[in-house]
Amino acid sequence: MARHTSIDVIDENTAEEEEEIPVVETPPQPEEGSNLHTLDSISLDTHPHPPSPSPSHPSLATAADSTPLQPSAPPLNLTPPTVRQTAPQTTLLTVVPQATPTPVPQATRPAVVPRATPTPAHLAMPTTFKLARVPMGASPHHSLAIQRAAHGLPQGWQAGMTSDGRVYYINHIHKTTTWEKPRLQERHIVPVATRTAQPVAVEQDSSLPEGWEERRTGEGRVYYVDHNTQTTSWDHPNSKKEDLLGPMPARWEMKQMADGRLFFVDHNTNSTQWEDPRLTAKNKPTEKMKYSRDYKQKYSNFRFGLPKTKPRAPNILELPIRREHVFEDSFRAVTNVRPLTNFHSRLYVRFAGESGLDYGGLAREWFFLLSHEMFSPYYGLFEYAASDDYTLQISPESGIYNEHHIDYFKFVGRMLGLAIYHQHLLDAFFIRPFYKMILDKPVTLDDMQSVDEELYNSVQYVLENDPEPLCLTFSANKTVFGEVIEEELKEGGAEIAVTESNKREYITLLIKWRFTDRVQKQMDAIKQGISDIFPLRLLKVFDAREVEYLLGGLASIDVEDWKKNTELVGYTQYDQVIVWFWKAVENYDAEMRARLLQFVTGTSKVPMNGFAELQGSNGPRKFCIKRYGSPNSLPRSHTCFNRIDLPPYDSYHKLKEKLKVAVENADVFEGVD
Q: Which residues form the HECT domain (predicted)?
């Protein structure tokens, strides 16, 4: 005989009281052979809720599904209930059990998780339900456990328990079950105005566009209805801001999961991904030097051949430096080092008036600051190449500006050697002939093209045509303080005309004069300075391009490589703060990225083989982001460990602003150590 279980409708004013359910007494045992589970109920609000954009959990199934729920929640062996109304405020639920199955010992009976049974379409769902569903015969211990599990459930959810004491959860809104307890607050994207609860009438906003209407949910939250497209939105139609990254690529769509995490759908390939396609399209990996076996073997042999620290040498080479006099103090400190083997000890830079300890970060910062001073054209040692104001070349007239220029070029050579020996980078790039001269390799006509395009075109014309109509001689002109001075390319060259038969000799001498002869003394001093650190012959295993990357690293920053070689402490790659951080980096220009990298690591350059080779206090150390501080504090950096302490900011714009303040004011606040 079928049993009837009545469900009392709870008044909405007592819903909060019902949520804290006291320990209930053990209900009477069901009759033998009965398959009845008591359907106590949960509080269910029926006002409009936005739908979850994510697909259903694979372990969930709807009540209409006829197949068993796999793998975690098999269906309850019950037929759909019939409902009859006995009073205006009371709903009776009749549960008809199926045939009694063959008895199974309780110890071996599998856990059965009932699925939410759908309400017939022609009947309204009860207004409120209790939060806990306690099975008949449950012990007081189990009753207390399920009531605790029901505490704090979102609206529309109910906790239940299987016969073996395992707690499960029912979502009566979506007619699904799950073993995992849902979060207290479910985030949704778009409200759905088609649910049973009626919206609350509100005074209409006169600024709404035509066809829009303002409504309010039962909880009082405002949403907007666009009758033109029959869609709804939480956002005011006039407050939508343009995305900083611009529109999505063709046939791409951005969606949001129930927990607020964004993902992206590519309808071109029917695939999804977490990465914003606008970021990857805008920042494709930049071309960098391949870490080939040949170069790896070269570099390994080079490091092995470098002189080692002498047994009785000091452990550190201390360099006291004043920031405001970094060039003068560095020149004095490095020039006076005796014996030269002390250069092989670990560098320990101590900035005057600062308490920072140097575990590698201050030394990197020293090289960075000194690069800006040492190679500045202001001192007359170097000048910008004719083609741009970025690459540098030795100034042929350095002796006019500084009578001790040879001593300074020897100091420059020592700094180049120290940078290579201690694996630091200089914030400067030179013309390609500069590196070839260090390696004693000949400079060719092709090298001239990237340095002086106008001179290259003139020489190319002479090479391809008869030069006699041009009336050229074996001489060249230079300008010193506005005065044009003629120099002979060889003895008596001013009297020797360039002809078809000797034009190749003329071109060879012109290239040699342009890049080598005029700066030979300065280059000899640089090479002598490098030799004070390690034998120059060791460097000759590399070509000019490899030496350029050894000294200056990569000029461009590959953001994808940066992400790939970043460690996270206290965060995961899916945390919103980390997503915002990389979004800010993607939106930065090249200069700001370099400044951020310098703020954290002490250098604005990346090693020739990418971020995987960033150097720390005791060898390679990856870029690190650590969770630290409050949302109102500024980020801090630890250059010795390539680490930035990033507080858990609550908005993208706040993170970007705090990061900008920290990077641009690193010298005036205690944010770097």
A: 336-672
- Classify residue 406 as exposed, middle or buried by CB count within 10 Å of its CB (0-12, 13-18, 19+): middle
Assess whether pLDDT exceeds 60 at residue 32. no
Task: Say how many residues make up the chain.
Answer: 673
- The single residue of 640, 659, 662, 663 carrying the catalytic annotation is 640
Please give the pLDDT value at position 50.
Answer: 39
Contact in structure between 319 and 349 (CB atoms under 8 Å): yes
What single letter denotes the amino acid at residue 187?
A: R
Residue among 50, 36, 31, 42 at smallest CA distance from 8? 42
Is 471 tagged catalytic?
no
Tell me how far apart the terminal alpha carbons of the chain are, to the nearest angstrom.
Answer: 80
Cβ(433)–Cβ(451) under 8 Å?
A: yes
Min mean pLDDT across 341-345, 400-404, 446-450 is at 446-450
Q: Cβ atoms within 10 A of the Cβ of 580, count?
A: 19
Distance of CA 35 to the CA centre of its chain: 56
C-alpha distances in angstroms, 665 versus 441, 595, 596? 44, 11, 11
Q: Are 182 and 156 in contact (CB under 8 A)?
A: no
Residue 71 token pair: 């793998």
C-alpha separations of 596 from 170, 254, 665 in Å: 48, 29, 11
Dihedrals phi, psi of 332, to nearest 5 degrees: -65, -45
Judge if the upstream peptide bond of residue 339 is cis by omega within 30 degrees of 0. Answer: yes
**Residue 427 pLDDT more than 70?**
yes
Residue 453 structure tokens:
């395009």
* 101-110 mean pLDDT: 42
Q: Give me the amino acid identity at 596.
A: L
The span from the CA of 549 to the CA of 32, in Å, is 84
576-608 pLDDT, tens per residue?
Answer: 999 999 999 988 887 788 888 878 887 777 776
pTM confidence score: 0.49
Residue 309 identity: T
Q: For position 282, what pLDDT does the model report?
A: 44
Helix, strand or coil, per DSSP, at residue 475: strand
598: number of Cβ within 10 Å: 21
